[in-house]
Amino acid sequence: MQRVIWTILAAFVMAIAFGPVVIPWLKRMKFGQTIYDLGPESHKKKQGIPTMGGIIFAVPALIAAFAFSGEGRTDFLLMAVVCALGFGLIGFVDDFIKVKLKRSLGLTPKQKLVPQIILSAGLAFWAYKHSLIGDSLIVPFFGSEWNLGWAYIPVMMFILVGVVNSANLLDGLDGLCGGCSMIDFASMSLICLLMARAYPENSANLLNIAIFCAAMAGALLGFLRFNFYPAGVFMGDVGSFFIGGALAGACLTTRLSLLLPVIAFAMLVSSLSDIIQISYFKITHGKRVFRMAPLHHHFELSGMPETRVVIMYYIVTLLLCLVALLGFVA
Amino acid sequence: MQRVIWTILAAFVMAIAFGPVVIPWLKRMKFGQTIYDLGPESHKKKQGIPTMGGIIFAVPALIAAFAFSGEGRTDFLLMAVVCALGFGLIGFVDDFIKVKLKRSLGLTPKQKLVPQIILSAGLAFWAYKHSLIGDSLIVPFFGSEWNLGWAYIPVMMFILVGVVNSANLLDGLDGLCGGCSMIDFASMSLICLLMARAYPENSANLLNIAIFCAAMAGALLGFLRFNFYPAGVFMGDVGSFFIGGALAGACLTTRLSLLLPVIAFAMLVSSLSDIIQISYFKITHGKRVFRMAPLHHHFELSGMPETRVVIMYYIVTLLLCLVALLGFVA
User: Fold this and answer.
1) ipTM value of the model?
2) Model pTM?
3) Within a domain: B296
4) Whether A325 and B5 lie within 8 Å, measured CB to CB
5) What pLDDT score does B105 carry?
6) Where do the TM regions start and end (chains A, B) (predicted)?
7) Domain that holds residue A163
């Protein structure tokens, strides 16, 4: 557990040191955010704040994860890193097109979805064939497992693509996605530590995922220093896709995907509120359930200050992570 | 450890439920804050926001601590509760006078200090005579103890009065004192859990302090919902003195007072910056080290937005608490 704490501290220090180098560079390269025309009015002032800040935490997280991992098997770590880097790369391409072609929406939805599906299919198949992962998911709180058979592959593809796009949707207020996912990674790290005790035959792999999650938590804590309200940098799609990929990768390897609706509840409601809003709008030909989707914009337009919405999301995430921990502690 | 999590959740739920009852009542009773004339200009708009919100977390924390504690010895818990309640009461009197007599500064410094000294003398003597506490302090990271002999009593009095007044000084920005101390209590709770394993002969007492700290952390998390920027309620002296007393009480019983400069670093710098500012001003007949003391006002007046200062304090506190944990984990 000392190693986990050192990982957090190292990743944090790197992110804090990296920020003041990367932010001016992003500004010089004119990677400023083109604010989405459909967002709330009050967000117009955010025009010109640099985006693609995700590299401020992605690079330190990867360095710290590799530096502090090691002992024994590293195949889980490799899978999680491929998942985070793969989705992060798709986000990077999207950001790059957004900024360079001045198209506020970047890639078209289809252009984003196709590589995501291909990547998730590859990852799901890799996990399915892996001797320590296979076709079953852990059912938390019930101490049982859910065998999916061949259905594991489409289910896991749906989860991977879902988490990544939900993380992307959650990234709508200063510090929202970074802070909530920092809490997720911190609790996932603790859960992996506890699981490593419960599954001694696979402890090396589980400890490496604990280190990976700790590296993400530490790096995100450093990033929050620059991204909290009022934000000096946005993470961009490269950031939110990397976060989604890293979280999904940690769950894919540890078979804890069924924990995602609990720990990543903030991401889930972002997606669900968006889906509900769009479906209802189409069915009723123009009516809305929320003032604006995703849900955090609804709260904002209901008169709640941005910072208060963000802290509410943090609090709910923290409590749900504590609930998730209940399934793993004595 | 499950019991600790349940304590956090219960205290949180009570605080969240208690807030919407207490805040309108405080408003009706006209317990609005009279903003200290010497604070930054930008704080003038905070005039009229209700104060004495400390009861929103103090009452739920005490209820949760009593409800979830119990097994075996409860003398440590009793001492910590007396410490928190005693100092909280002094704060309450101060707030009450401030509001009812419309004196912005409440009690005079001497009127505040005398009861604090009397209370801390009683508590220090009680701990000194206690068979499981005595005259020594644990030296973290070195695995040793520091025997103070009779000097334990004045040293501990200094620590108690120091922590309580430092917590009070830290309470200058929305969510600052509440959030930082929430992190302190969460890590103290974890440290007590780890210590309970290391000292099995005293585990019942240490577990009860873990529960006490968890109750404080959960209740403060609920309070932050109302106190984070832009604050809808302030904790007042009743709140900051209660926090200081609870933290000091947890350290008094567990003999972990030497950990305070690490985990309560934010409180320490608030006090130190105030002392440095005043001393330097007196020595140089009018020169200042900081733009304004305590230090968080200096950052604010240097152009850092209030929320950014608060999140910086949270981040530093969290990292230092992780460092403190390094001394207790394998």
Assistant:
1) 0.88
2) 0.92
3) no
4) yes
5) 64
6) 6-26, 47-70, 76-93, 149-170, 182-200, 206-224, 231-252, 258-281, 311-329
7) 2-260
